[in-house]
Each structure stands twice: as structure tokens, then as C-alpha cells.
Amino acid sequence: MKKLLPTSTAGSLPKPSWLAEPEKLWSPWKLAGDELAAAKRDALLLTLKEQEVAGIDIISDGEQTRQHFVTTFIEHLDGVDFEKRETVRIRDRYDASVPTVIGEVARSKPVFVEAAKFLRQHTQQPIKWALPGPMTMIDTLYDAHYQSREKLAWEFAKILNQEAKELEAAGVDIIQFDEPAFNVFFDDVNDWGIATLERAIEGLKCETAVHICYGYGIKANTDWKKTLGSEWRQYEEFFPKLQQSTIDLISLECHNSHVPMDLLELIRGKKVMVGAIDVATNVIETPEEVAATLRKAMQFVDAENLYPCTNCGMAPLSREVANAKLRALSAGAAIVRNEL
Ligand SMILES: [Zn+2]
Predict the structure, then answer these.
(1) Labelling 35: which of 10, 87, 93, 190 has CA 20 to 30 A away?
(2) Which residues, by range, are in coiled-coil regions (predicted)?
(3) pLDDT digits (tens, 9 = 90+) for 267-311
(4) Are 101 and 145 in contact (CB under 8 A)?
């Protein structure tokens, strides 16, 4: 029988200090060339082991082979000039210097497929691999070629589909698309955001997920959250359409969040990765706190559809804190599993 309440993480995990400077986003690599390639494989083994020891059921790569969840994927594509930079407003929230789309975008070679094969060779557990979603990709670029957010999103969806099919062939069980931009551009999400996501998963037989969150615990995000009021109802804007979509799993921020849990009613029937770990604090959740969040979610998510998870990635945290949080997640899920 399939294990109930399988645990997983939203995506990134801390990197070891010999690979990149810890507790930092966009942290530069400490090695180069063949040494870096070997170090990334070692880090994959380490994160795999740490997840298994913490009792995580669905293993992720912890983003050990990438500097950033969006940028690294784009770096491997044609048509984007990383030297030519423009300042744009990301997710309507903060300014950043980003690369420029200067011609047709294309994927001339696989990006993460080798790393996925390597992870697959080393564990019997199901594995989940995250890719950026089309809308979040275009939100991290200046487009001087297509001059249309929607057009560029469709192009990226095609490219993501190529990568996703090869990840599936490499033995990945769940392919996840990270779409924090879904919480900001509601009209676009409904007009073409979900449609481009469905294009990205076209023809896949493995399970597919979308991760929608309120971001890492960085200052720009925590400041933004303060402006959202006491109830965060952003999910409400596009859940009805997402419920109708072909995406299997939806990964959401639910713990220490002002998201009213009853919004989950709008996606009833979907599998939900319920974020029960706050990534914006070093305070370690108790297993009982995790269990309480999961029980609340179970009012709206059937047990067989509930996947205990973290709110978002944990790259900016220390390894000690992240590992303790993973153990709390497993222990909390075990409490509720025993009650079922
Ligand atoms: Zn996230």
C-alpha cells in the first residue's frame, strides 16, 4: 500500500560550505571546472543522505547543482544575453538587474538531466525535480525580442516541456514548476499562465506539480507580506482555474502564513503539498505544530491527497536549522499518519 502523507521539501536546501557560501541566495561557487562538477555530485549525495536520515519520503536535489532556481535554467538557453543587463521590477516588488532576451529562445542541450540521472542512481525513493515556471521565468528577464510577456511564456513552455520529458525519462517521479509569480499577476495567470504551464507538462506520464508561494524569507518578501493585510487571499484569484487544470499537485505555503486554510476548498480533488514548515525563521517547528497544520488542511484535503512539505525553499537557512526543520516535518507527519 502507498504510504500516506509522504513528506517532501518545496525545493532548495542549504549547500555545504565547501561548495558555495552558505545562507545566501545567488551564492557564488567556490570551485570551478571539473572540481565544481565533482563537488556538485558530492553535494547531491550529501543532500540525499540528509533527507533520507530526516525521514523525507520524496527526495529532491535540493538545488545543489544550481545557483538559483530561475537564473540557472535560463543560463543554459540560447537567445538570452547575460552581459546585457537591464533593471526591472521583479514580481512587482523589488528592482533587480536581469539579463536580456535578444533573440529566439531555445534549449540546445539538456540542463539538469545528467544530475537527475545521478540522483536516480543513488536512491530507491521517489524523486521530485523542480523547474522554473514560464511566468516566473519571464518575470526575471528583460525582453528586447518578443516584446510580449505572453509570447515569451509560450516559448519557455515549449522549452520546459523538452527538459521535463527528458527528466521523466531519467526516472524523475514528480516534475514541479515553481511559479511564485502566480501570486502577483492574477489576470495573466488566468489568461495564459495556467495554459502555458499545461503546455510545459504536455505528454508527461509522471506526476506534475506547481509550487506557488510567498517567497523565500528575504527582506523584500517579508516587507511585501506586511502590506498584504491580515488575510492573504491571493490564491483565491486563480484556484478555480487551477482546480480545472491538468496539474496533479499544488504546493502551497500554509504554516505561519495568513493564508486562510479554507481557500483549499477551491482546489478540492487536487493533491496538495501543504507547507507546514516556515522558511522565514530559524525557529524550529515542533512536531505537534506540524501536525496541527496538517490536521487543519485535512478539513479540505483528503488524506490520500495530502503531501506534508515546507512552505518554500530553505537555501538561505543554515544546514543545522534546515535539517532540524526536516526532522520536525517527518515527526509531525508521523503523528497524523498514526491517527489515520
Ligand atoms: Zn517558494
Answers:
(1) 10
(2) none
(3) 999 999 999 999 999 999 999 999 999 999 999 999 999 999 999
(4) yes
